[in-house]
Amino acid sequence: MNLIKFQILVLIDKWNKVTDVAKELEMKQPTVSFHMKSLEKDMGTALFISTRGRILLTEAGKAILPYAKQMINLDQTARRTAQLFSELNQGSLQIKSDPIVSTYYLSSLIAQFADQYPGIRISNRLFDEVSDPGSEENFIAARLDKLGSPLEESSDKVLIRTDELILLVPENHPFAHESNLHPGELSKYMFVNYESCGWISERMGRFTQITGAHLWERVFAATPEAAVNMVAAGKAITFFPESAVTSANRGVIKLPIPGLSKEDVLIHITLSKMNELTPAGQQFWSFLSHEYRNPEAP
Length: 298
Description:
Blueprint: H1 3-15, H2 18-25, H3 29-43, E1 48-51, E2 54-57, H4 59-86, E3 92-97, H5 99-116, E4 121-126, E5 139-144, E6 157-170, E7 190-194, H6 198-211, E8 216-221, H7 224-233, E9 238-241, E10 252-255, H8 262-265, E11 266-274, H9 279-292
Parallel strand pairs: 3-4, 3-5, 7-8
Antiparallel strand pairs: 1-2, 5-11, 6-9, 6-10, 6-11
Keywords: DNA-binding, Transcription, Transcription regulation
Pfam family, one: HTH_1
Family: Belongs to the LysR transcriptional regulatory family.
């Protein structure tokens, strides 16, 4: 059905005059009248009534008015979406992640995508565990999978990296010379948590559940980098992804977490779709899934 008929219905309700509707649509008055009669024929009932020089909607006309507006809005939305897809090198992409994923796993991926699609505006900000899961925003969530999360990939979730959690201690720490470290020994030293990464608390709980040893959690760093610096500056310890500790992190050493198996320290970095993505978001998803997914990367 021709949408112009519904546009005329909406405008008749607005102006109540055929002349004004014809002027807005840049049509001749007979053409507007023709479409009005055609719509009434399509609907099988009278939709317009003339009274005192004004054109009003009948009860039937008023009843279908909301649907007419909805169809017009859908048509406009469809056209805007099609336009975005016709020029994929534009639009915006929103990725939300925790600080560790953003700093150590996501930055190079975003840089590669930006080089290939320079017209797309990319925003990467911190993921809010409280508000974002229920958000109606369209974005991609990048995070370290929590304990118990399914590892299977799907059309809405992609595994981009695997890593292992290690014990991070100062280079002059007594643990540095321990050949057979016992889990209970960790309870003697302050443990640095980083508040913005809730998964660390989960791993601490998992450590206690498996080993029976309780970590002395007394220091909370604002960022992962701050946690590393705190460890390097004193005698505190923390858990940290192994590949995130580089030669630039001087003053710290990496040790296996005592009492935990390889499976217990394994972490998975995933990207997930949150709601229906924008065309730019879908382009990034295609880029990720078909070109740069490499879970076994070191």
